[in-house]
Design brief:
1 helix, 5-stranded mixed β-barrel, globular, mainly beta, 265 residues
Length: 265
């Protein structure tokens, strides 16, 4: 069961992993991306263009010829996202940042640099595959527990809460809702992020499914322990902000990076 996220993102603060045995070529970045389109806020009380942050690693095969410490890299990325695991983050970057400041951790599996100087406000697109659980047919909603390889751990977890929204493409009375334990592959825009009660870490994400294919049935799946969380999409108060502000953006632009820890002498 896995999920891939396609997004336009800004990469900052490149550093070489500190973990032992890491092959040359890996780079760790702070990644920033908007969570929803400019005009798709779910509530008038919530600002458009909510910002999220992730600590990600990327294996540079030559796509990035020169990586400068103070350079913002705007790019299209295909990446895995998971709940931050402090032990994994500490192994890669030491104690220079607080893992609890990040909404996600993950791996960039592909990136394409873009000729832009500001972060546009477009929602990420999520491709998810796995078994449907906790199906609510009346509301066309279900859950999918994700467990995939990311940041050098095979158990990177993130719960996906999927739904079929009321769109003209779906017959409202006959939406293709999967049954419990049905295997499926679906894709759609990221609609929501719910954070854990005691940190900025994502407890689960919501995805509005726009395309779905059914792939058979799965065996019984143990209940996930990652259901809890406080419904709140990360914003400027929910984690690190971008350090450098591009000149006169037409869309909101992040501001400050994760704060480094200072050691007392």
């Amino acid at each position: 069961m896995s999920a891939l996220t396609v997004a336009i993102a800004c990469l900052q603060n490149p550093r070489t992993p500190q973990a032992k045995g890491v092959a040359p070529g890996w780079i760790v970045f702070d990644m920033f991306l908007y969570l929803r389109d400019k005009s798709s806020a779910s509530s008038t009380d919530e600002p458009d263009c909510q910002l999220a942050t992730a600590l990600v690693r990327y294996y540079n095969r030559g796509d990035l010829s020169v990586v400068k410490q103070d350079e913002d890299i705007y790019c299209m990325v295909v990446c895995t996202l998971a709940r931050p695991q402090p032990s994994q983050i500490a192994a890669y970057v030491g104690d220079e940042v607080d893992a609890q400041e990040y909404n996600f951790m993950g791996d960039i599996v592909y990136l394409a640099p873009l000729p832009i100087t500001e972060l546009p406000c477009y929602a990420p697109y999520v491709i998810v595959s796995g078994a449907a659980t906790n199906v609510n047919r009346a509301e066309a909603r279900w859950h999918t527990p994700i467990s995939q390889y990311a940041f050098n751990t095979k158990d990177a977890a993130l719960q996906v809460h999927a739904r079929l929204p009321d769109l003209p493409r779906w017959n409202k009375e006959k939406k293709p809702v999967p049954s419990d334990l049905s295997l499926y592959a679906g894709a759609g825009k990221l609609a929501d992020v719910v954070t854990a009660k005691d940190s900025q870490a994502a407890a689960h994400i919501g995805v509005d499914i726009e395309n779905i294919a059914f792939l058979g049935r799965a065996q019984q799946i143990a209940p996930s322990d990652h259901e809890s969380g406080t419904p709140s999409t990360p914003n400027g108060k929910r984690g690190p902000k971008i350090m450098k502000r591009p000149s006169t953006p037409s869309t909101p632009t992040p501001s400050q990076p994760p704060s480094k820890k200072t050691k007392s002498s």
